[in-house]
Amino acid sequence: MSTDGKVDRRTLLRVALAAPAVAGLASCAKPVADKANPVASGAAKLDGGKPLEFFNFDGGYGKKWTELPLDLYRKAYPQADVKLTSGQQLQQQLQPRFIQGNPPDLIENVGLDGAALAGKKQLLDIGALLEMEAFDQPGVKVKDTLLPGVAEAGRYDGVKYEMPYVFGVGGIWYSQALLTKHGWEYPKTWPEMLALCAEIKKAGIAPWTYQGKFPGYLTNPLLMTAYKAAGPDLKKNLDNLQPNAWRDPALVQAAEGYQELAAKGYLLEGTQALSHTLSQNYWAQGKAVFIPCGGWLENELGDAVPKNFEMTMAPVPGWSASDKAPFETVTGGPGGALIVPAQAKNPQGGLELLRIIVSKQCMKNFAELTNSPVVTKGAVDDVKLTPAAASMQKAIAAAGTNMFSDFQFRIWYKKLLDNSDKATSALMNRELTPEEWSKQMQKYADETAKDPSIKKFSA
């Protein structure tokens, strides 16, 4: 998940144009009516003449992909005034509109606190969407067109409030052409990574860079290295805010390892002050060998990536051969979050546009435009993958069951997420020792656990 509102499309990450016209959700979908909440159940008839607003996060995936679903909606409902708005600062742009009771009808959420909105009943229960007929597959329910895990994702207390749209994976990126040129091999453990960094530095290249202004980009690989050393219980304990979870020796050890990137001069000079765009562009220029990021990186860089670069993503290195989780373990799966605000002026229209977006043709279009895996079955079967996209597919296949969506505390508790960014920044600036970082994170987690105003979830 993003820490700056620009990620997790980051993670991450993210056509046949002939579409059947639809007369309204009541006619094309057959969910069980919920008399108490007809919109949430999908039973309310869509007023095709009502205005519709879709708010797009104009980040790593851009907004070109939105043209097809919006055109299909306009074709189906020609009387509707369909409006696209975009931005990157969702908290500043949309929070006032939630307060005023005038949010957009559908939001591509990167930056809003989804858990808090769900807890305050600000989001529509979109579970009925799963039982509706797929937009371009007559007789097939939406849920049966989705990849495994997608229907279950985006739930809080069992209620589905968010629909993922990308099937992403996160890891460490590098140029395979550059590694081949120097005879370097991607390392599987952190000591091997540090040894390779020493070789890279001797060659006159910076081994690493990261999105310094947004340290959450580095928090995820640090946690992954610790996870591989300690095993799945580490994640469970962190997510459940267990006492002393952040004091696990594997976390302190990983913090020591990552801090060495700074201590030994293995970071591109000035990395800690770089924005996500600058660090990523410097990396694409060959000024650094490794950078952590989600699957949206290639699309976000665009033409900045040189030809024959062989852009490649690999799993985060573990700690040692005695790790409790395999090297192939990655964070991945359904990602992104499309949400329908409960107080939207046209929530049924938002639900209908969401149904169109996850159609096979729209997901194929998204994949072709963004070089990203998507959530709908078969959507990328005949899409020619770039080396970057192919490396992600390879990582997903190799991980198998050793893949999980993310450390859930990063999704459930925004304040804890923000505090973890501050702590990681201090760690990499060598303002905190790894031991102090561990204690500081435990303090933040304990504060979250004891705060009665924060709704708690469990893994």
Explain what the structure shows.
- The protein has 459 residues and is an alpha/beta fold.
- It folds into two domains: 198 residues, Periplasmic binding protein-like II (D-Maltodextrin-Binding Protein, domain 2, 3-Layer(aba) Sandwich); 211 residues, Periplasmic binding protein-like II (D-Maltodextrin-Binding Protein, domain 2, 3-Layer(aba) Sandwich), CATH 3.40.190.10.
- Strands 6, 7, 8, 9, 10 and 12 form a six-stranded mixed beta sheet that branches. Strands 2-1-3-11 form a four-stranded mixed beta sheet.
- Helix 3 links the parallel strand 1 and strand 2.
- The N terminus is likely disordered.
- Keywords: Signal, Transport.
- This is Carbohydrate ABC transporter, N-acetylglucosamine/diacetylchitobiose-binding protein.
- It is found in: Cell envelope.
- Belongs to the bacterial solute-binding protein 1 family.
Write the topology of this structure.
Layout: H1 25-28, H2 38-41, E1 52-57, H3 67-76, E2 82-87, H4 90-100, E3 106-108, H5 114-119, E4 155-156, E5 159-160, E6 166-175, H6 176-182, H7 190-202, E7 206-208, H8 216-230, H9 232-239, H10 249-263, H11 276-284, E8 288-293, H12 297-301, E9 311-314, E10 330-335, E11 338-339, H13 347-357, H14 360-370, H15 387-399, E12 403-404, H16 409-412, H17 414-428, H18 434-450
Parallel strand pairs: 1-2, 1-3, 7-8, 10-12
Antiparallel strand pairs: 3-11, 4-5, 6-8, 6-9, 6-10
Helix pairs in contact: 3-13, 7-10, 8-9, 8-10, 10-18, 17-18
